[in-house]
User: Fold these one by one.
Assistant:
Number 1:
Amino acid sequence: MNDNSDNAPSIPLSAEAPSSLSASAPGGGAIVGGGADTAARRYRWRVAICMATLVVSAFMLFYNLGRYSLWGDEALTALKGTGVMETGDTTAVLKNGNIIAWASGRELVGLKVRAMPPAMFYATAASFSVFGVGAWQARLPFALCGLLTVALMLWWARRASPRYLFALSLGIIGNASMFLYFRNCRYYALAVLAATVVAWCYHRWDGRKRWLAGLAAASSVLFAAHYSMYVMVYTALFVDFIVWRRRERRLAVGDWLVVWLPQIIINTAVFLIWCPLKTPTGDSLLTKSLLDRLTLWWWHLRDLNTVEYLSWPLILLAFMISAARLKKTPLPTAVPRALTAIVIMTLVLTGVTNQLTSVTSYADVRYLLPVLPLGIALTAWAVCRLSFGHIVLTVPLAVLVFFSNITHGGMFFKWSGARSTAWCYVRELLSPNPEPYRPTADWLNAHAAPGDTVYVGNGMNGCYPLMFLAPQLRYAWQLNDRSRAAFKDLPPVHIKGEVMPDWLVGFGPYVGQLQNDLRRYGAPGVNYHLAAKVDVFWPELYRPELFWRTFSPITSYDKNRDVVFIFKRAGEPGK
């Protein structure tokens, strides 16, 4: 029961599930209810399933949205959004006197932040302008993008049978990874929504230019959200068009102009301004060996399963069974096209990523987020295929797959073990864990005078969350020196060693970094004494990546080492 009302092509290629895939039965025919099902009954079931999924998704996205402080990357995004709100541009100099100079200004061209595309900063600034500045306000536009993505996934599958739609809905509400990413003040949800709209317009294109215009507009949003994801999605679209789609419909000259002329103008303007190649960050695009690249590609494929974007065992088993029964039940073309899209996107990311295999053992799965909606849809297809048309098998299999990590190999993961990640997520939503930044900021707000200078030893993972929560303080020593012309006239507080900070903050073992920096940059005769130990486990354990997150509070830690240390300059004023 494919959506052919507008002569739409049967299969898109991107981060979303094609309606033909969502409508494909295990045997390749349409997934429909029993003969007694009426169209009206199927319609009511579809509406009920979609509405229930949207309500649950809204809870997963918006409940306690501002409970956790912004972690490092989020805080950087919010502070840059503050700069946009104040000046209209991604300035590094805020009106309160602080600067945003991560890694000694690696993201800067002059005193402007230029290393990343700007869409997330402007979205954050818009939210701040309307609702005020705060954690939930920073995350709000991205949570809204997440809800729109869920709505589009359901709309795409709206003409599927209730059985597939039910499996897809369980896949959505059971995917904690998706909600974790969509609740962050980062490009994640915006890029996924844009990629999904690109796929939808590509799928719906029936010769009318309105779909190509929508594709072009969404593509420019995707480009302004994340350059690498844009390249991944468009490479996958190109391969799909060459192998499959051009047989169905060819693009006329006018069609090419509608797709590319707006993108060339908009995307070129964006890239000329926010160009990472102009910043020292561009130096980190290192050449890697073939072995490194192959290792990263394997990690990308492996960790799509690890973090529950999809279930490789289930998908591959369903694919093999379908392939073995080709004479009886042809395999829906959507399946190899979707699998090809995933392989292409992982290959492209392997080629453009600057990740080093020597410093980690997991893939940077956040850059593969366009795969996530497609992975859920493919896994839902596999559930229906392996239940052989029987609803009594579909429901328990879907619950097993989407509400446990068994088919993802969770029993072998030291960082999780076998569990229901969805249940862990809901439990944490209802009873959030302690986190280090808000208690530390509360202490500084109570004891440090406005305008006091603070040096935070562990950089982005401490400095910028505190800067967002306690903006009346001045955050010192972000720059190593004045070697760049733009730094010549900055106040001395920003340069290491030019003036001594009033306060030092060290998160856990980063106290050692404070000691090293004092030995290197400290002034003779200036001493600091311990003013407070904030009794909270120091790491930020609420990032969205499952292997870097804990859903339960850490209660067993060394209170003489694994807490937050605050030092005060001897003899200096402070409340």
Note: The two ends are 70 Å apart (CA to CA).
Number 2:
Amino acid sequence: MPLSLRVLLVAVLGLMAWAYWPVTRGDFVIDDYVFIATARMVEAPWAAFWQSHFYEPFYFRPIGVVSWWIAQRAFGLNYLPHALINLVLHGINVLLLVVLLRALAVRGWALLAGAALFALAPFSLGPALWPSNRFDLLATGFLLLLAKLVLVTLVSARMTMPLLAALLVAIAACWSKELAYPVATAMAFMVLAARSASWRRRWLVFAALGVAIGGAFAWRHLILADAYAVVMGNPLLAIGRGLGTLVRLLPGLASSALGGERGVFWLIGLGLLLTLAVVGALFARRQAQTGWDRRLMAEVPPSFGVLAAVTTVALAAIIVQTPLAHLSAPIADGSPFGTITFLRFYYAPWAGCVVLAAVLLARAAWPRALSMAVLLFAIVCGVWLRPLGKSFAQWVHTDIRPYSVAATAVADRPAGGEPCLLVFLGTQTKHPLFRMFSDVTVKARAGSPEHAWRCFVMTESTPWLFVFPLATPLPEWPMPKITNPDGSAKPDSTWSTVRYRYRLPPADLATLPGARFFDWRDGRFVEVTDEVRRGERKVPSRDWGM
């Protein structure tokens, strides 16, 4: 890469850091607290590789869980380094994308445009703003590295070490997030179409990748009793609904991420540029067939086979994530957190789309002009995206942190004997996300775990889960157990030295014996247990409805 383009790439990464930086002043929210509380209670995180470790038994993601354990032990509740981890991971992924594009014969301005589009667009930089989206960043990074290693394996004189590295990276990707299974499988099948290698080598690489991906999946299936519980209904129908929902939500997501109507303009402009790239790629191919002077191109562009392979892998990433668009549509409510949470499902698909766009730009008849236009759009996008991180940080500090800190202060104070049940009222409408993760929030923030970790913490509804050290004796409160789809009661989930418990609230919370009640008044939780016991304060339970 010429020195001038290297300097511009560094400038793009600098702009990415500038756009990201406001979110480093934020704080943790919902799922973050699950991983922090678990990391504090787990003594041996390596058990995640052979035990079911997620708070819902549908996922097997030991790489991400171990990364959270290491980060928590290193930084505790200091949010800045946790946020910087995501920034560094996203930056590494941008560099991995650059390395992959070079291996695909993408050069010059097309390469820089692709790097900028991945570094600064809302579908990539947006998800990086929330620490819990680390699983997507890890899986995508491993997939980008896997693609590069596969290409090296196909052309290297000595293929043993690159192939072994590719197999390990494939397993790491699959054990970071489930979307990697179909994407890595699509890559394996594309190996068979690589004419640059012999049939023997192609079949060897394909078979080895199949064994690695299949082995990772078989191990996951062996450990998870409900490995397929989240797969519901007709998959083709789910994909169709997801695509329709995603198309419908795109303008709103762009507006939320980039600030008003300009987000829609950015989408329209980018769509027009990429359409021109497609037309330009077709025009360039036609001109090549009629003897157009290819010396006008700085490098030999990616072949049509590369374009087809990249398209196939990108479609695999898009298809596997589209059902989530329909299932998670309520999340995209226009708020900063809703936008960031929804965008996380499309971090990996966006990486595939960016690789495809860069290949198209490299093959176009006017690669420099189109690439510079895309680069300009990406830069504008990075500037417009900066307020999203700022809004997210402000929202956390005004709507999340006060309740979290106040509830933790109550749990840290020793009061009464064993057992302990704390009910925080007044949060059902004011703080819907606190009620879903009230218990893990307090356990993660606890300054006196010897007091806080023995308590059940809830609001007008029970949280998604209660978490305790495995050795803590737990009483059976009169709270119904959650019922599985097959009619059985949902059991406790344990791994290493931690226990997850799942319960529903009774109809009347006042019937909970020994519970202490607190109401949100004037910016703090005030105990109202006597009012509840005398019947002056009614405390009916509620569900999680917003």
Note: Strands lie at 420-425, 455-458, 466-469, 493-495, 498-501, 516-521, 524-527.
Number 3:
Amino acid sequence: MTAGTTVIIELLGGVAILLWGVRMVRTGIMRGWGDRLKHFIQQRLGNGASAFLAGGMATAALGSATAMALIVAGLAASGAIGTSIGLAVLLGADVGSALVSAVFASSSSYALWVSPLLLFAGYVTFTASNEFRPHNLGRILIGFGLMFLSLKLIVGATAPLREATLFHEALTAIGREPLLAFLVGALLAWLCHSTLAVILLIASFLANGSLDITGALSFILGVNFGGGLPAVTATLQMPPEGRRLPLANLFCRGTVSVVLLAFVGRIAPYVMELPFGVIEKAVAFHAGFNLLAALIYLPFTRQVSRLMARIVPDQKQAPDNLSQPRYLDQMALSTPSVALSNAAIETVRMSELLDRMFDTAIVALRSSSLEKLKELKALDERLNRYQSSVHGYLSDLTQAELEKADTKRALEIMLYASNLEHAGDVIHLNLADRIKAKAKLAITFTVKQHASLDDLCLIISQSLRLATGVLTSSDVEGAKRLIEQKDTFRSLENKIIDEHFRESGKAKGASLRKSALFVDIIRDLHRINSHIVSAAYPIIEAAGLLRDSRIKPEKKAK
């Protein structure tokens, strides 16, 4: 194997270890303290200055401006943060990321002994505890250890390049063409999804003399521009509110980098006069660039926000027929039969809304998508409004004297509306928590377990459609079928749980948590189905077919 091939392989390995270390730090922080990190940011969104500081501190801990951009874009997509304040957070995140790069690029002399200590401490912490947060703390320490280890590998891999005349000439030639160096730096930052990796690479070239400081400045400007591209591409499927923030950040970084590129020849002498080593000068320029971008655009975040709203306009959403009750006509209260029909129609629409809510939860369960779960809150609030509207409407109706049959019918509709609302609460408050726990703990169910849950969900969907018809028609046969489906659900539920406990009777640790979560999800599905089936009981009771108790009577002794 030639020396050039060895250098390339070791360099690629060092960059890969660095990227994996950054990923381990990011995932460890997000899994263990992600909610607290988001809360920390949200509590400091009062003004641009506090948002800027929050973004800087959070990113200094997280180690990735791209990860922070995705977090803030998610908050913007959910309506928790506006583009103006969000941009202030991202400008702070860029500064925090630049400071992290400066620390790592300047720490090559410490990497020799820091890396083994962090790796050992991380391994001990990771293996010694099964608790969630200590486990992730070990992951973070290992990630930092890998990052310092990669620094040693990158510096060591590029050391032979000091004697490589051809490489020196090629890199110097690129450095002498500012636009070409800018494009190469931007491309590398985009491909690596990490400005830190490319900055360390440039620092290693500076250290071995392959690149001079003048040529490095154009590369660094390109890196700062390309560092904004991964967040833009990663948010293309988000709503407009989520896409605007990474694009606004790219706009700020891009305009400043392009303007400075035009004057890079005049800037270089001033950078050369800084009282630092050659590597420290480069990372100081990198940090100074991000500070300059923040100083320029922090006072103009609202203007940039308005520009982004023009570039990425709001989507024209199709009208939602279930957005609010439509048939609760106050004029119809003088005709009880019409008013009761109107209320029954709205409970049918509530059923459709619950069906949408249930489908959303099941999609999130199958895909472990936390973003999908965020839709449940708005749907549950809408379901609550429906219930309040139906109850209020029927309460107004019963203020007048009604026939006994109409009063009974009003009570049936009110009870069913309440049960639909309770089923929505189970989905939003209980089932959603199980799905969130499954995603955060990275729990995966077996194919058989997924099939069992699908069978139970199918019965619930069938029950919901049947209950709608039973409520509107008061059909006794339909009500009997609905209660039979409840018995079918119970039998299948007992069978699934019995088989599950027989197969996982010796489960421990993580397997035990997985087993308990699976059973809890089944219990939540049971509660949802029971609330839906409740539509049948008033009809069965009126027909005289409802037993007083499910307990068999004791046989009398002879």
Note: The chain is about 80% helix and 0% strand.
